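pinging the channel bc i need a second pair of eyes. not urgent but kinda urgent?? the chain im working w is below, pasted from the shared doc
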Amino acid sequence: MSAITGIVQLHQQPLPPEAGRSIMQNLQRFPADYVHTWTCGDIFLGCHGQWITPESRNETLPNYYAERNAAITADAIIDNRAELFGKLGIAADRRADMTDSDLILQAYFKWGQEAPKHLIGDFAFIIWDGRERTLFGARDFSGSRTLYYALTPEQLSLCTTMAPLLARPGVGRQLNEQWVSEFLAIPITTEAVDMFSTVYKHIGQIPPAHSFAFKDGQLHFNRYCVIEPGQKLRLKSNGEYEEAFRDVFSTAVSSRLRTIREVGANLSGGLDSGSVVSFAARELREQQKRLHTYSYVPVDDFTDWTPKSRIANERHNIQATVSHVGNIDDHYYNFPELNPLTEIDDWLDIMEAPYKFFENSYWMKGIYKQAQAHNVSVLLTGSRGNWSVSWGPALDFQARLLRSFRWVKLYRELGMYSKALGVKKSRIFPHVGKKAFPEVTRALFASREDTVPDLINPEFAAQTKVFERLEEYGYDFWGHSWQNVYDVRNKQFEKLYYWSLTGKVGCKQSLRHALWERDATNDLRVIRFCLSVPEEQYVQNGFDRSLIRRATKHYLPDQIRLNQKVRGIQGADGLHRLLPQWRGLVSELRQVLEEPAVAGYLNIKELSRALQTLSASPKPEQVFDTEFRILMRALIFCRFMKKLA
């Protein structure tokens, strides 16, 4: 587990001793339980190891298998161990102590380069097959662990982080302007659509859901996993669907509790993290362990400006979940000394690239620090729940009923939904019609996108043809309300760029704090199950997200389980935190507008207008406004460019 690396010479020349040594020295800034390397002529493998699972304490990577002339280094936790034991014919007396890296290698011995298809978990690994003289490896389907590479005329180098590769001969820190153009053009937190590239021109990445093979100087990639809706599951009753959901979800949660230390979880006041916590706390009680939960709350002097349908401080709802579930040590943090500005330089160091998620950056990092202080080695999340376990968009489902002329069912669902929300049907139906007939809506409102300011310099965008390239990748820029949400959901699993950032953030934080972020709602078994469930199970009797609401009866309190009226919103106090430093922030932003290093990349005209709008009298409720967002992203990008110089 942890940071891994590999080097292979292109012409079978002996590898200089300092090559591997320099990479391993660069990884010393991360905590480790052991550091080990393996060298054989023109091959080098290394691991800066952190023990997370019980089996990992028996593991020293890289590991060489003389009888097969093969070696492996791995950053991996495999979750379908029981299934693999059966498929691989592993004897019962070997299973308890068998390491995950050994399982991966046994899978490779049986299935060759098809092995990643059989693995479920969070992983990146590198295998040297001496018989085939091939370097082979893979990343898990959503990129929960990172793996970068640099290919020069002399050698191929791979590593979990980019910094060691930047120091390799012939690599350098030249900017990848194609990646930068995508980063600046995409309005949401997605970094880029080209999953092979990074911010550096001479460093690439193994994309999520891909394996690689390097042989005879040629590097080849293969996408081994594509998640698509398949045959629908047909059960006899609601109860059977609920039981099937609990079975697959509890398996996913349970497999993520395998650790030698404490277990923690991010907990908000909603369904996704609450469901993960409720299943985990039950399982841990049987292990005589307690679950630590970590929750962000706004600073004490913050006045909630959000609408009635949103709530910035979820403490009351979180405490309801904690009280109902039990076996939880709950922790609440507002980190008053932190804000989006104070954390920029540290996040640039963590990410090794510019980033966009400043709204949540301060409390995300703060929670990792607190979890580490509590000896937590697994931090559970429910980040992908909206697209898997808690799927069920009521208005879009009703729009489907309208388009298919299922009037009776539509009238019933609309009536029950309006009653549950306490809103008249006459206020809801226009939204249903808007979704049901997107062609009309698009014709009426498509021009609105022209009013949204771009962060990217128009000339740079034209030079790199970035918008044309994004369209080729099938990227939807703004997520308009007329979109078919069912198509959007399918893209969340088909297109790799939607979720690669989540894995990147979790992996790089984990290296620093020696703990793994693990998401049961992102389990491949859970996703495939959820995609197989008929839509009628997800919206029923006036409730959106119906399946998880029904399946968590007795697991969650009804005020959380059945709540459709209020949703939490995180980071609402981000701008409020900045008010004492506002003059300094405005001063730095003005410097950004005059900085030659970024003038060719950023849309200075739009940024100047945004700064003029905000600088005079900033208000806390502007924290999610586009003007504030592009200004903060421009500042982060500018600081990165200065570090690069």
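so The chain has three domains: 3-162+203-223, 238-390+499-565, 574-644. and The chain has a mean pLDDT of 93. — does that match what u expected or am i reading it wrong
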